[in-house]
Amino acid sequence: MTTIRRFCCDDLLRFASVNLDHLTETFNMSFYMTYLARWPDYFHAAVSPGGRVMGYIMGKVEGQGESWHGHVTAVSVASEFRRQKLAKKLMNLLEEISDKMKLIMLGYVVYRRVLRYYSGEEDGLDMRKALSQDVEKKSIIPLKRPITPDELEYD
Questions:
Q1: What are phi and psi of 152, to 5 degrees?
Q2: Is the CA virtual torsion 36, 57, 70, 152 positive or negative?
Q3: Residue by residue, what is the 3-state secondary structure of the chain?
Q4: For the N-acetyltransferase domain, which residue ranges apply (predicted)?
Q5: Block mean pLDDT (10 aa), the chain, length 155
Q6: What distances in angstroms separate CA 37 from CA 29, 34, 43, one per listed residue?
Q7: Mind listing the domains of the chain with CATH numbers?
Q8: How far is it, in rounded angstroms, from Cα 128 to Cα 71?
């Protein structure tokens, strides 16, 4: 039986099989530690009965006022554990947690394209969903042009 629980520091030493996949973008340790410190409620691991990390999800909340929104930074499942709906379970958990905190995490729109965001010259998509306080949905009006990573602003 799979257990989904909060990601912990020890998991950083045990989740290599998830990150070895060519479809998974990997980050440096300080990046993961920042998420553990700043948004621990939004960082979870799916763990096998033997304690093996099968997958994980990292998210956060950001913005101010009408632009307050949720962000899924990464969701990844080790190749041998795919087709078990683990990613869906992780996303549903993040939505539940967010809902308890008066946030909604699914139903994103592409807000902007970030050129060369990932290694290998791959672009990233900044996807957002307006929250209840943004009645006019101003926080999700798509930008008309792509941006570079240097232009990203974090609140």
A1: -65, 140
A2: positive
A3: CCEEEECCHHHHHCCHHHHCCCCCCCCCHHHHHHHHHHCHHHEEEEECCCCCEEEEEEEEEECCHHHCEEEEEEEEECHHHCCCCHHHHHHHHHHHHHHHCCCCCCCCEEEEEECCCCHHHCCEEEEECCCCCCCCCHHHCCCCCCECHHHCCCC
A4: 2-142
A5: 88 85 81 89 91 90 72 87 88 74 58 79 78 86 84 68
A6: 12, 5, 10
A7: 3-151 (3.40.630.30)
A8: 7
Residue carrying structure tokens 């632009």: 67
Q: Is 41 exposed, middle or buried (0-12, 13-18, 19+ CB in 10 A)?
A: middle
Q: How far apart are CA 21 and CA 63, in angstroms?
A: 31
